[in-house]
Structure prediction request, 452 residues.
Amino acid sequence: MPPQEPDTASAILQNALQNFETRFFPLCGKNVLASVSGGVDSMTMLFLLEKYRSSFKYNLHAVTVNHNIREEAVSKADADLVADWCRSKGIPCSVKTLEPGAVSRTEELRQRGTEEAARFLRYNAIESVAAEKKCSVIFLAHNRNDRLETLLQRFLQGAAGSSACGMEQARLPYFRPLFEASRQQIEAFAMHNSVPFRTDATNFDNSYFRNKIRNRLIPLLNELEPGWDTAVLSGARKRRLEADALTALAEKTVWKAESSETIFASAADFWSLPDAVKIRILYNGLAFFGTEQRVPYHILESFALTGKTSSGAGVTFYGHNDLIFISSNEVPQKTGSSEESLGFCVPVQEEGEYQLPFGTVVVSSCSEGKFTARLKQDTLGQRVSEPFMLPAVIRNAVSSDKLRFSNGRTKNIFKLFSEKKTEARFRHRIPVIQDSPDFVTTVWFRAILENI
Prediction:
């Protein structure tokens, strides 16, 4: 690695603050909060935020969090370093100390590992200080190296969607002013300017997955494929654009609370959407629901692709009438009138009359080996089905149905409903006729809709 210019990190942070004001709002007169651990990255950020506070005229506050998961003396020394330096510069500093065992209890509850539990509690503590001090912005010290480590970690964990795109520089109230600075540039600045910091010994413990990536995988990639880092970050920026478009589509579906245990959203167009959008809608639902545990991707995927009830990690996804639900109940609680809840499935083995919820159906031969169905009261023959073969079943449409056309093409039935602008209240009541194991042969719109 070539030697780094000691002032590069300073220029990067100054430029980031200028860009922040261009994109969001002026910092002049605003209370801002720096999250500081005592390590070289966050102490350098704090040093530079103090340097530029007279130029940007913000009111700088700091917070440091003692997680109480290392030796007491070590954790206290980190917090003392931050507090003492802030005191010497006249910066108000809040020291938040978690109760012993809080991280392990949170890890057990959320089932996402020690690092995630510590991060969850840390961010809660930071946000409580920000609210108390009325801070408009929270500065975090993540840098270019952190972004690469996060992208590699999430790739190796099989992340999808926005998660696979890594960190964002701005997700207000959070902002990362050293986002474009490398760790080497930060360390060069710290050495040149005698920035005090402490080194966390656990950073070298390769039993942690993140440390394996930092200490073993990244040096190997640097050796085998110089320039890989620039390519990975460029790819992440492109994926972010795609993820943002996906998010915009998914946010058109609005989740609402039915009770403290169940939320719901309209399924009027849900089943005709691309699978990726459906899965993003379900993730949005989980965020709205506030589930504590991580729900495996395959559970959401199963519901989105098949429409069948899918459960796991304390939640159940299911559809009912023209709604989709996420519930903490093991057994979905059906709602609505008996008429709305009515499903039907009538086997048809031969010609004759069959009773269905919308009336008596007469099945008769129309050509060699082919049959049609009509409503008995339809004496003019205006509401006759398309031809089908026997044996068959006449049943209500469900979201996973696919219609096979005479040319061999298939289409999801609910996508067909959307194209025909079929009202949502009719979609689960329209009968379909199925004479093969895998596909629907006929969608019998005219059985209940006279204007089709």
